[in-house]
Specification:
453 residues; BirA Bifunctional Protein, domain 2; 16 strands; Rossmann fold; single chain; eight-stranded mixed beta sheet
């Protein structure tokens, strides 16, 4: 039987890993610049930690792990006979693979609250698992790159997260737009049109404005039970145009009677006023149709899209007021964002802008023809590695064609050929695999040639 891997998972080749590590390393460096510290949590959590945190649909997408040993020994025969998978799973599985990094982070904060300093600034880059139906761009195993601040209500944190987005994408050379909204503004909109109880269907509908157009949004709002008067009141908001300042000025008038709405506007004004003091290259746009994770977020909401590639959000996040409440530590506010490494990878690939140096591995291969030559190569290779040059020695005295073919296959830019003549002169014959030039060089000349590239 031919070996295979589970659907929705992937193997990564050395070149793919080099590209992924370039993304992870770039993001990590920026996170550290802003004082964030790395944590890791186990791949598996207790199901009691995970269940009930993602809604009914999310619970269905959790991968469960069978208990160790004879997991059926203590199972109730009547429950097994009923074939009720929910009840049966509770008896035979106590653990599951993590669905995201946020709930494990909340558990971590509560469990370690006496050991960490607040505000707590953490970043986490680890895989998560979802028993979703695999399709293009959607996998059952994928990485999340999260950065969060908990234990602070200050909007200064939102500003720093925008700076982090700006710095990451400037370093990755991806042209992006950061869209921002506020949950309180969305609540205010629902309130002033007299439909506060329908905030979720309203925002779900307007979230589709870019995709389906105004007429279809209005049609969906009707189907959700909004009357003509409420839909009419919503039109000036859906059609809002202008600069961020102009949009906020119009909203102040439209939401004058909503305390929550005015608070949301004030929060965005504070964020924008900070941004005017900074040289943020990324375009930051107030977008009222942005309504991600409405039941989860309580303040600012962020979404980042690549301008030059048709792909969904590549970064998203927002402010949440009670991350840790479900674990018994109420009123701990936080704000965070998550970079989608897989989508960022696709963007860089489509634009073909992975830096060549990020894909480099071995810089030089030593080719030899016998044991004395290999011993000679070992000393040279040690000297090159000492100055940080990735170096390989072909492990056996094979034919020249085979050894050079190995260098070609791995795209190694230099080959050092060692025979009796080279050893007598304490040199190697260095071949530049790109230009084809070849000549005798000393150890220092070899180092200079490679580092000059």
């Amino acid at each position: 039987m031919k070996p295979s891997i589970p659907k929705g998972t992937r193997d990564f080749s050395p070149i793919e890993m080099a590209k992924r590590n370039y993304i992870f390393d770039t993001i990590k460096v920026v996170f550290r610049l802003y004082g964030f510290e790395q944590i890791e949590t186990p791949a598996m959590e207790n199901l009691s930690t995970l269940l009930g945190k993602y809604g009914e649909e999310g619970d269905k997408l959790l991968f469960k792990i069978l208990n160790s040993g004879d997991f059926l020994a203590s199972a109730n025969d009547n429950v097994l006979a009923q074939k009720d998978s929910v009840k049966a799973t509770a008896m035979i599985a106590e653990k599951g693979l993590r669905y995201d990094l946020t709930v494990p982070f909340a558990r971590f904060v509560v469990q370690h609250q006496n050991e960490i300093s607040f505000p707590f600034k953490r970043y986490q880059i680890q895989p998560v698992w979802r028993a979703d139906r695999p399709q293009k761009g959607r996998y059952r195993e994928f990485y999340q790159c999260d950065v969060d601040v908990v234990g602070s209500n200050s909007l200064f944190n939102e500003v720093e997260l925008i700076q982090i987005v700006d710095e990451v994408y400037r370093r990755l050379n991806i042209n992006v737009v950061l869209k921002i909204n506020n949950r309180k503004i969305l609540s205010g909109i629902a309130e002033i049109i007299g439909q506060a109880d329908k905030i979720v269907p309203i925002t779900v509908a307007i979230d589709k404005l870019d995709k389906v157009g105004l007429d279809n949004v209005n049609k969906e709002l009707q189907e959700k039970g909004l009357n003509d008067e409420a839909i009419a009141k919503l039109q000036p908001i859906l059609l809002l145009k202008g600069s961020n300042a102009e949009k906020l000025a119009t909203l102040k008038t439209l939401l004058a009677s909503s305390e929550a709405g005015l608070q949301g506007i004030s929060e965005l004004e504070t964020i924008f006023s900070f941004l005017t003091e900074l040289t943020v290259q990324t375009e930051v746009e107030l977008d009222l149709t942005l309504a991600r994770g409405l039941n989860y977020y309580t303040g600012a909401i962020f979404e980042v899209k690549a301008k030059d590639v048709a792909i969904g959000s590549i970064t998203g996040g927002g402010r949440y007021d009670n991350l840790t409440g479900v674990f018994g530590l109420p009123n701990v506010s936080g704000v965070g964002i998550s970079f989608g490494a897989d989508r960022i990878y696709d963007v860089l690939n489509q634009l073909n802008i992975f830096p060549a140096e990020s894909l480099d591995s071995t810089k030089i291969l030593f080719v030899s023809f016998g044991e004395p030559e290999m011993a000679y190569c070992l000393l040279w290779a040690k000297a090159l590695r000492k100055v940080g040059i990735p170096t390989e020695i072909y492990p056996e005295p094979a034919k020249m064609k085979k050894q050079m073919g190995y260098a070609d296959a791995k795209k190694i830019p230099f080959v050092a050929i060692v025979g009796g003549d080279e050893m007598t002169q304490a040199k190697v014959s260095l071949k530049d695999m790109t230009s084809g030039k070849q000549g005798l060089v000393s150890l220092q000349e070899l180092i200079d040639n490679i580092t000059a590239q």
